[in-house]
Structure formats: structure tokens, C-alpha cells
Amino acid sequence: MIKGTLWGVLYLMLVLAPVLVMFIVPHPVGREFWRELSVSLGFIGLAMVALQFALTARFKWLKAPYGADIVYHFHRQISFVAGVLILAHPLLLFVFSPDTLKLLLVWSAPWRARAAITAFVSLMFLIGLSVWRKRFKIEYKRWRIIHALLAMAAVTFALIHILLVGHHVNMPWKRTLWIVYGLFWLGLLFYTRILKPLILLRKPYRVKEVKEERGNTWTVVAKPDGHSGFSFMPGQFAWLTAWDSPFADSEHPFSISSSAKKTDSISFTIKALGDFTARIPQLQSGDRVYVDGPFGAFSCDRHPHAEELVFIPGGVGITPIMSMLNTLADRGDQRPVTLIYANKKWDEATFREEIETLQTRLNLRVIYVLENPPEGWTGESGFINRDVMERYLPDCTRQHRVEIFICGPPPMMNAVESVLDQMHIWPGDVHSERFDLV
Q1: Homologous superfamily in CATH for domain 205-295
Q2: Which of these, 251, 262, 255, lies nearest to 238 by C-alpha position?
Q3: How far is CA 149 from CA 3, 124, 180, 186, 424, in A?
Q4: 190 CB neighbour count, 10 Å cutoff
Q5: Which label site among 52, 62, 271, 312 has the fewest CB atoms less than 10 Å from its CB?
Q6: Is the sign of the CA dihedral 353, 231, 306, 412 positive or negative?
Q7: Is residue 23 predicted with pLDDT exceeding 70?
Q8: Are strands 288-295 and 205-213 parallel, antiparallel or unpaired?
Q9: What architecture is domain 300-433?
Q10: DSSP string spanning 22-44?
Q11: What are the pLDDT digits (tens) for 143-168?
Q12: What is the structure's pLDDT at 437?
């Protein structure tokens, strides 16, 4: 909590620093309030855009207090805020000083205006393609390359615009602030595009086996090749690169499904949902892959005080839950555990047999909820609703006694979270893994 607060304060300071420096004397005189407001909003928006690189650089120490899904969600949402602030910068100028509209005439505008237009157009394309990537069916790897190029163009030309305008960089130490921002940005690019891939290149993994599971999923088991691998908390995830080098920008995030007690190999259970995941069955024993991890805060290890644990997965959302169940079993943990597992069909219940075995090793109660149950089914049918929750949830009235973990399709997670809220379960005891990082 303390680390998370400190990171939040630091982020706010870095966002506001350009504005605070802007008003320290000496500064340009005779400029109207609206013009200074316009510049202030532009500076804040640009600082936010520059800091976006830090949010996506996969620094474990940065994401640890929140969880990667929260950081990426913040990254997406703050990009809209930055876009609005940057858009407000020229709009205020146009409204209060209509003569500045001539700066939009690129063929006759000064270079400072051309740089600004290029930065703004790059940013708008960046946001638009990110929002509508799936609608336009832009392939993930191609989108990542375009995303990176547009981001670099937006920041580069914005910095050029600031330096060419010169109103608020009229002192060497003020120029230094933006130079530092530029160097910070370049340093992040060097780390993410060169240094981090080099590190991963030196620590490859080899595929040990690929096992077919229920529900159109496959488990990839990989062993460290020439190194000791890494330790992780059960429930965390990692980025997997296959059929490519770490420089290729083709990694994908997957939850780890194996026990945290067994680090001689690592397993990912992957459902065929897209171009990359549909190729997983083609992996062969001995193939080289690269694993970047661990990441995420979705883990029962972060809540050792819990007297009971409740897991509510849907479909392939069972993956991080299996890591936690396997780890608890390997540790001999006998705390009461309730698993409420939703699937469309009985035959699609991934890890069904493994869960049955785990019931002999854990104090585990399992409830299956099937949307389309087979004939003669006597278990729960339909969806996980309030009736189901009230029947099977343990006593959650005391805070921190029971920790609840939810992972699955967004509609299912939204419904479960809504029910828990209606039941007045304390939000701090409910933990969700919304696996939509890109």
C-alpha cells in the first residue's frame, strides 16, 4: 500500500513538473491567461504521454503494488485523458486567438507548427488504432509495431515543437527539464527494445511437451535452457515468445498454470482464441521459446492471513487458479478452499480430472456450474448468480477472513463482482484478474 501510494505521488509530481517550472521566473510576460492555460494543459498531456513508456516497460517493481492488469488499464484510460488535454491546447488558441488557425496550413506554417501537427496526428492515430484494433482486425504483432512508431513520433515531434516555440524554455535550466524528459524516454526505449530482449535472449527455454486439455486448450511445458529459471507466486503470468526472437515484438501474456513449488519447469495452459494461440499445438519438444516474467498481483500468496480461500473461474480462467491449487497442495496447506467453476459444457471443463485428484490432497470443495448441462446433470445449471453464491460461499462477514479470486470472461466477472457487491462483501477481499492487457 505504501509503495503504491509513493508511486502515485511520484507520477503526479512528474506530470505537474513542467507546469510548475513554467511559472518560475523569469517567464514570458504579457501573455493572456487562456494562452498560459492552453500551454499548461499541453505540457501536462505531453508529460502523461512520455510517462506511458514507463507504464508499459514491464518493470516488476513498478507493477508489484497494483498488478499488471491494473497498470495496463490505467495506461489505457490515462491515454484518453492525455489526448483530451493535448487537444485542448490548440482549441483554446483557436477560440481566443482565431488568427492562429493559419498555423494549420502546413505548406506555409512555420516548422514549430508543422512539428505540433505531426505530433498531434500521430497521437490521435495511436489512440484510434488502439481502441479499434480488434474491430479493424489488425494483427497483434503488426499493431504493436505501428503503436510503437506512432508513440515515438508523437513524443519526438512534440518535444521539437516545444523547443522551437521557446516561450517556456527561455532559460537553460528550463530547457534541461525537457531534455531530461527526452533522455528518460530514450532510456526507456533502449531498455525495452534492446537491453531487455538481450537479457531474454541469454535465458531461453526449451519446450518439454505440449499436452492437449479439455476445452480446446493446450498446456505448454517448458524447461530453462542453461539457467535456473525464475521463482514466482502462484497465479502470476508471464510473456511468452515462440517462433521468434525477443526483438520481434511478438510476445503474448499467459497465466502460469504450474505449481510455484516446482521451478525446474513452467507450464502455460492456452486456449485457441486467435492467430497465435491457434498455433500452440504446432510447438514441438525441443523448440526454443522465451519467457519474460513473472508479473501480476493475482495470487493467494499476497494474502497469507486468509482463513479460507474461494476461487471463482470461468472457462480458461481456471489457469491461474490451477497454479494456486497445485501450489497449496504441494505445500500441504489444509485451509478450506471452495472452487466454483463455470463452463458452457461438461466436456469443456479444463483440468476436470486434475481437480478431482486435488480433492484428495486439499480441503477442497468443488462446485461446477454448467451453462448447457448434459442430460441427467444434477449439479448447478445456468450461470453463477446470487443463489449459487449464497449456497456455497463461506461466511465472509469478517474482513480478511475469506479471500475471493475471480478470473474468466469479462461478462462473467462483471456479473460475479456485481453479486458480491450486492452481498456486501468487502471489496478488499475480492481479487479479479482481467486478462485484457493489449
Answers
A1: Translation factors (2.40.30.10)
A2: 255
A3: 32, 13, 21, 13, 46
A4: 11
A5: 62
A6: negative
A7: no
A8: antiparallel
A9: 3-Layer(aba) Sandwich (3.40)
A10: HTSSS---S--HHHHHHHHHHHH
A11: 888 888 898 899 889 988 988 887 76
A12: 52
